Amino acid sequence: xxxxxxxxxxxxxxxxxxxxxxxxxxxxxxxxxxxxxxxxxxxxxxxxxxxxxxxxxxxxxxxxxxxxxxxxxxxxxxxxxxxxxxxxxxxxxxxxxxxxxxxxxxxxxxxxxxxxxxxxxxxxxxxxxxxxxxxxxxxxxxxxxxxxxxxxxxxxxxxxxxxxxxxxxxxxxxxxxxxxxxxxxxxxxxxxxxxxxxxxxxxxxxxxxxxxxxxxxxxxxxxxxxxxxxxxxxxxxxxxxxxxxxxxxxxxxxxxxxxxxxxxxxxxxxxxxxxxxxxxxxxxxxxxxxxxxxxxxxxxxxxxxxxxxxxxxxxxxxxxxxxxxxxxxxxxxxxxxxxxxxxxxxxxxxxxxxxxxxxxxxxxxxxxxxxxxxxxxxxxxxxxxxxxxxxxxxxxxxxxxxxxxxxxxxxxxxxxx
Amino acid sequence: xxxxxxxxxxxxxxxxxxxxxxxxxxxxxxxxxxxxxxxxxxxxxxxxxxxxxxxxxxxxxxxxxxxxxxxxxxxxxxxxxxxxxxxxxxxxxxxxxxxxxxxxxxxxxxxxxxxxxxxxxxxxxxxxxxxxxxxxxxxxxxxxxxxxxxxxxxxxxxxxxxxxxxxxxxxxxxxxxxxxxxxxxxxxxxxxxxxxxxxxxxxxxxxxxxxxxxxxxxxxxxxxxxxxxxxxxxxxxxxxxxxxxxxxxxxxxxxxxxxxxxxxxxxxxxxxxxxxxxxxxxxxxxxxxxxxxxxxxxxxxxxxxxxxxxxxxxxxxxxxxxxxxxxxxxxxxxxxxxxxxxxxxxxxxxxxxxxxxxxxxxxxxxxxxxxxxxxxxxxxxxxxxxxxxxxxxxxxxxxxxxxxxxxxxxxxxxxxx
Lengths: 417, 417
Prior knowledge:
The structure is a homodimer of 417-residue chains.
Chain A: E1 16-28, E2 33-39, E3 42-48, E4 62-71, E5 79-88, H1 109-114, H2 116-119, H3 123-145, E6 149-150, E7 156-157, E8 169-172, E9 175-179, H4 184-194, E10 196-204, E11 217-226, H5 231-248, E12 265-267, H6 268-274, H7 286-300, E13 304-308, E14 331-336, E15 339-346, H8 351-360, H9 369-372, E16 382-388, H10 389-397
Parallel strand pairs in A: 3-5, 6-10, 12-13
Antiparallel strand pairs in A: 1-2, 1-4, 2-3, 4-5, 7-9, 8-9, 10-11, 11-16, 13-14, 14-15, 15-16
Helix pairs in contact in A: 3-5
Protein name (chains A, B): Aspartate--tRNA(Asp/Asn) ligase
GO molecular function (chains A, B): aspartate-tRNA ligase activity; aspartate-tRNA(Asn) ligase activity; ATP binding; RNA binding
Pfam families (chains A, B): tRNA-synt_2, tRNA_anti-codon
């Protein structure tokens, strides 16, 4: 018999149907018992009259149930299954590390992560990762509609291009290679091919930070586009992308922010003023960012604020300076409720500028040679941004630890499960 | 002035417009010169009357051109730009490792790969990676429509689960970790959460194969689904996915195969017979696969043939045996024109079966413990498959070397660019 999902039962009142799912909860009363079955669509109630029928297996055992659908306004979805024939589809589960039927999991972070295989089944956990999936879907939808091409660039790289200290080493057929910290140069190179590209993939950071906001491996949503006038065009794309990511997540039960059509933009110098910071500061401290977040809400009713013009020296060396306006650059951050959500910039696109910038910073050109070749071969003005998926989701739903929004997090202390 | 794409010029006859792109070709004649500009939409012809105007820069230099659009049936797209004002948007390019304006690149594989940053710009190269992007798009479209959830699982893992010899070691904060050879156990685990999942991501193989079909890193398109009756349901999903991937690639100028609504299915034993092989064989040799490919075309007019029931011993240990039909399993291959395109199977879903199978094979359970926990916690019957993106594209377009369909390939000898 074809399986019916719990959400489809109401359309089958009076019929014999088959459902299948996990034993979410057994409630054994004196004269009758209830079996709550969980499937990917929700919960279904099965009324069991045979004494002892639910004794042989515990919660999370996978069952198939053939039964008759009857209306019962008190049951989940307004229907329940009666006269059931229950078949075990998994081994009977005897012991569980957590109780999934409770409305809140109520376990410590280590338990949550050590037993991810089962804690992820809790509805409160499921919807976090449905949100992640929706965010990725929204990201792609917006970019596909604007003529972007998805690319897949290598994660094993031959040289450690962004500060050797924070890169993982790989034993590569007896030699040494590294795990890519970002697809930065590859996506720039691909602007030379497709003009507009995006990539969704893992990036790796060997930074020994033991904080609630750092992971050793995370998912980076990367965008790069060519033939721009300046970074403002990149910001416009980012605005549409973030709006699409949030739109796609509607209906999952989270309270989500509204992305204004025009996100307010502050120049870095102005941002310092608003935050009451020393005008000589070269970066924004967390307290400054919070003050700017408050300003955005107060003055523009916006949870989002763009800050542009960060001092060039505080940004990655490939950031394009603002011509004639030293020390400012064409780098920007998107703040969400006073926290950095996304960074982006117009990039340098001329080889001579790369060489000069590396020299100014006292960095050797040699390790970058293979990546920089492309800038001698005709690159248009371009820019882009990268969204850290887990950090995005974390901020969107106000999670306190990034590990709560990562399926199987990797950090200084954790490489399993 | 807003930029117009080459493909939009015909709508602007009589107007002054601005195009931008790469100097694809300069053709300097006695009285007039032509500048062919390449952008992401195609080529545009610019008529240059000023002598010497094209002398200062070479092919691949990025230019912006403001000009008047006039109709000329002899020009690409039926229009050309006259009275141009040319602006250089990149440094002038002087030397190129290849000539991109020729219809065929005509370079050796090492040149193609060493100079990928520029060879990828050739139209013949671009469309290969447009095909890759389309294939990924089709993969997602089909699965999204069938209620699958996209997941992102870690690529750094704590134990080498599928034969230690072929796994890359990572120096992980002073300890040893490994690069995931596949998301196999993670996607199975996630069936316990979402029932139907897919993942698109890199996988890593340290196999020292130096062949035209092996990469050290490739993109794996992974699918796993629960509550199946048997592997036939997995094969039905695979059929739809492959059809969607190919449909999405229409219009890129490749001659693409038709995926029949019902792909012919052969049992392994029958396949051996058709191939004229010894009935005691435990696997199909390349010559056998070719014979089966010919059979599919001859008997069913199909480029695709499913072979099911491969002997359990020759498949991964998590493959579900065909009950009561030893030595056969519920593992299958999809052959395309006589070559394996995709492998899949129903998997074991009971912990006891995993333990028994590992014991039979003389393998220790210990390194798998962390992954196998989930099978004690209620897992439904499930199965799935993995499509190697590069190998898929390679076979689809008949490329002779997998490196030709990989943006920046990684192999025994190559970890750059």
